[in-house]
Amino acid sequence: MRWGMVIDLKRCIACYGCQLACKAENGTPPGVFFARVLKHEEGQFPTVRQLFLPVLCNHCEEPPCVEVCPTGASSKSEEDGVVSIDPDQCVGCRSCMMACPYSNRYFNDKPQHYFPEGPTPFEQRRTAGHQTDIVMKCNFCKDRVAAGKEPACVANCVTVARTFGDLDDPNSEVSRLIKERGGFPLHPELGTKPSVYYLPA
Amino acid sequence: NDMSDITGQSAKDDWVPTSCALCYGSCSILAHRVDDVVVKIEGNPESVVGKGRLCGKGVSGIMTHYDPNRLTVPLRRTNPKKGLNEDPGWKQISWDEALTEIADVLRRLRADDPRKLTVQRTTTVSASRTPFLAFNAAFGTPNLSAAGGGMHCGNGAHLLSGLMHGSWSIVPDFQYCNYALFFGASKGHAAGHASASNMGMAAEARARGMKMVVVDPMCNFAAAKATEWVPIRVGTDGALALSMCQVMVNELTIYDEPYLQAKTNAPYLIGPNQRYVRDEATGKPMVWDVQFGAARPFSDVKAADMALDGDFEVGGVPCQPAFELLRRHLRKFTPEWAEEITTIPAANIRRLAADFANEAHIGSTIVVDGVTLPYRPVAAIAFRGSQGHMNSVYNFFAISLLNQLVGAADVVGGCLGFNPASNGFEETGRLAYKPHPDADGLMKTGTWMGYHLPYPIAEPRLPEKSGLQDLFVFGLTSPFLDSDDSEDLWQKLELPYRPEVMMNFGANLLMSIANKESVANSLARYKFMFSFDIFLTETSAFADIVLPDCGHLQTLDSRSNYPFIFSLPAGMGEWCWPIRQPVLPPEGEQRRFQDVLLDLADRIGIRADVNAAYNASMNLAAPYRLQGDRQYTYEEICDAELKSNFGPERGLDWFKAHGVLKWPKKPEEVYWRPFADVRVPIYWEFIVPVYEKIKAITEPRGVHVPPEYYEPLPDFLPCLSHQCKAPGFDLYAFYYRDILHTNSFTMENPWLDEAAQLDPLSYTIAINADTGRQKGIADGDWICVENEKGRKVKGRVHLTQAIHPEGLGVAACAGHWGDGMPVAKGKGVFFNDLLELDWEHSSPINLNLDLCARVKVTLEKEGKR
């Protein structure tokens, strides 16, 4: 099987719920976003279009980040296709960040917290456990998925723009949406074969 | 790296059902509590309020709760001088010391004149306002204000939604609507009542194929997701709506005749004095009965026999049906006229009107859950953008007429009020309410939010309220508590007292009303001010005593989403009653404001009155009524309300365990209009005597109230800012509500602040790219924005194609300068500093402020602040 995600750009309103639900779920430090929302405008007044693009690790089938990792810390699971980083093996060389064409990897250089006064009780519990001097990124909320839940960004999306499922199963909702609605990945020309697809706005 | 927040890691691990309070939507949440730390907030899927999913603000509530800048002890100022540049010199005091002093002040004040107390609160606790209503009523002051709420967000919107839909707000029936016209509203795409639920329903509607046309000076939020964005000159929405009405009525002659006959006052005969022609015997308004060929009381005539057109004579008096007058009145609002005002091409106005009229499918029906109902799948809705002007009444009235003309009001697919009718909770028969008619057949609301009812309009009188709303009876909240000329107005209008003490709850009115100098002057006039806060705000710097309140994860509320007309999603689905309950204990010496108000009531000796006021405010059933001056805890009061509504087995303990109670809505409740014998006013006959009475009070006292604001049919009246002719002042500055922020409050949340810093617009000034270039301004430049009176704000420019060439857009309520909220300090632009606060800039009918400012922009030489 291969976990994948479909994001319906017609539904997304750029509320940042995914970005912040991810932060709450994973306790990521300042400047680190496993899920982000990008905004872009196209056209000239008055025929202008606003484009909202939620992004996260694409969990590529051909992940360039895994290829360049010198220690084997970055790997793709044979079982479900999820690309993850083993923090115990990561030496923080950041080659993977250079290799990722989508800029969805982050370097956690030092212990960080949001208020200068020190880590909040939330951060002591949820952020302080993150190892430093290593690279971090989205792992499709594998602990949630193992517990039978959807990834946090999917479960929380107010516009129900995100669908999570098995791309290898032709009958899954993600496969159906991609087929019926013309789902597309970002930068297919790079040959990375992302597992995150978008439906046109 | 165990990253995800999963369950089962500790023996002390639970999910507590409660309610968000990062905005007034009050979505139902589950707080994940592990070893007494909240590690995650998720939406509660058991509730329809948010439907288990949250916006970015809701999930970020953890960081508001754990902010080290939260107040934890009562503070007293040591510097007697109050001003923008005065340091209060805070000193920690005990609760007993604080409450003894406050109670002494309040006791003396109440004995002197209770009206001298002004109570100000933030809109983010609108659903939790019962304790204030009870305290105020018991104390005896009529002066309750929601800071910027009302005159910014809803003095027009809520008035019209109440008059026309029996509810606080309106929304398209997302489940069935096919063509939604948004006028300066982001409902379903950013802020607003039931915001998260609406986001889900609007997305579903778009996916289903609902067309959405968004009229807005700026293409963000709703406009960004629209089928078509219609850029409009700031503040001219009413002109567009009137012109669309003209096209529908006089060019296309498409309107819903049976609806107008049965559900509006369109057939009521109007005499030359602009008043109803009334039956001498019954006093009822007359209509022309085409079967009888005579005028008869409306209640005696079949709706289908009521004339809508023509000239008649009744008892020698020439008269016309109200609709005939509307038809004639609309003729001057041609699309060519509107093009000049709105900048929208006449051809587009005609196309929009034709699309709206045709998509309404007048005459059609649909079956919903086995019930055959009128089907009008179009809706024109509006909110802050179109109503934030001096002409907000007419703007909203004109937009409302679009729905009325095609019968798309509270029917399937049309414009819905939020839950104006409910059969209540079946097991107890409680909570039932629905719109009902007055003697003239016009609609009175079934329930309301406090303040005065939208209809019948109250009798104007010499003011007892310092905001003058009992004279200007269309106004909900008022600028005259804080305005530059309030003393002048109070003198002229003989206000029999002066405000002396302010009790503030969380409102940062220094930032939320208008320019800070005007508001600071008014705050400094109070002899004593105390403030319940969770942070020290710019406003609490004017307080004598600051009391540390509990936050949304520490407090209790038996009705976090009631009344249902406020933030329960409209349309089919479920009735849902969630509560708010403490997940975490207070930090330091924080105390819940509800408990403090009860404590103060005991110290002042008004507990019996407070109990009586709670009985009234919560409408407690006989067995649960609070007795005498018994010192109930707030838990006991909440328990009484819940048992009173839902039976003895469903008290506070039941709700703490279950979080929400829900039951299905019936089509007859949601689409109540065909089942209620009420009419709504397309012609405001009642405005004529109201104006006469206001004039009789104001004119002899030297206050001129312009009559053009008090006509029975809407007109386009430009804001004062539109009349500015000063050279160089060529942009209309306006603000909008950012999706990441609520009022001035959430900028202190470091997660939301971080996201806002990455957003191209949250903290910048949006100007059309071509306009900017013509002025030599580049993207990212620092500019100074100046209004006609020389008030200035500065900020960084974001050049964009997505804004009208004459517009200048700023996200609201940013630009904190105080030290109490250090994350927020210096972020974004303080738009309200461009707003004047006086009679001249207020609507003479509903006291709405003129929220657009004519400005000129100049490049800051240093390239920075």
UniProtKB/TrEMBL annotation, chain A:
Official protein name in the record: Dimethyl sulfoxide reductase iron-sulfur subunit B
Cofactor: [4Fe-4S] cluster
CDD domains from the UniProt entry: PsrB
Keywords: 4Fe-4S, Electron transport, Iron, Iron-sulfur, Metal-binding, Transport
Pfam families: Fer4_11 (PF13247)
Keyword flag Electron transport: yes
GO molecular function term, any single one: 4 iron, 4 sulfur cluster binding
Cross-referenced InterPro entries: 4Fe4S_Fe-S-bd (IPR017896), 4Fe4S_Fe_S_CS (IPR017900), 7Fe_ferredoxin (IPR000813), ET_IronSulfur_Cluster-Binding (IPR050954)
Biological classification of the source: Bacteria, Pseudomonadati, Pseudomonadota, Betaproteobacteria, Nitrosomonadales
All copies of domain 4Fe-4S ferredoxin-type, residue ranges: 3-32, 48-79, 81-110
